[in-house]
Amino acid sequence: MVENIKKNAELRESKIYLVTSSITNLVFLFIIGVSPIFGELPEIIAIALAVETFFNLFCILYFSKRYMMLSNSQWDKRTTRQKIWSIFFSVALVIVLFAIILFIRFKYNAF
Q1: Closest Cα partner for 30 from 107, 108, 104?
Q2: Helices (H), the chain
Q3: Are the C-beta atoms of 32 and 48 separated by less than 8 Å?
Q4: Are residues 1 and 73 in contact, defined by beta-carbon separation less than 8 angstroms?
């Protein structure tokens, strides 16, 4: 019982870190994407955002792996259809984000 409580606490902690890292990366990418609208970012800030996004990606990968390991039983309980929709939604979200960024970049001739 104590082990189950510890596992649930670790699972909740991993989920919080995963969501926080994902939101941070989305904010960084949004800032980089809309910078042509409000004026280009200074070079040092653009480089810092790119580096932070890159390293934050490792945090996302680590916590998503940890979350999957801790919640393996929950993932196994999902039906194949639910798994496909989860993966599809994640991929679609990334594609939409990149499409928005590319649209803004091309519209304002930032390349």
Answers
A1: 104
A2: 2-38, 43-70, 72-77, 80-107
A3: no
A4: no
Task: Report how far residue 102's alpha carbon sits from residue 111's, in angstroms, rounded to the nearest whole number.
Answer: 10
Token couple for 3:
């082990």
What size, in residues, is the chain?
111
Q: 37-48 pLDDT, tens per residue? A: 777 778 788 778
| CA dist., res. 44 & res. 50, Å (int) | 10
Report pTM: 0.61
Distance of CA 98 to the CA centre of its chain: 12
Tokens for 40, please give them.
Answer: 């280009």
Q: Is 63 exposed, middle or buried (0-12, 13-18, 19+ CB in 10 A)?
A: buried
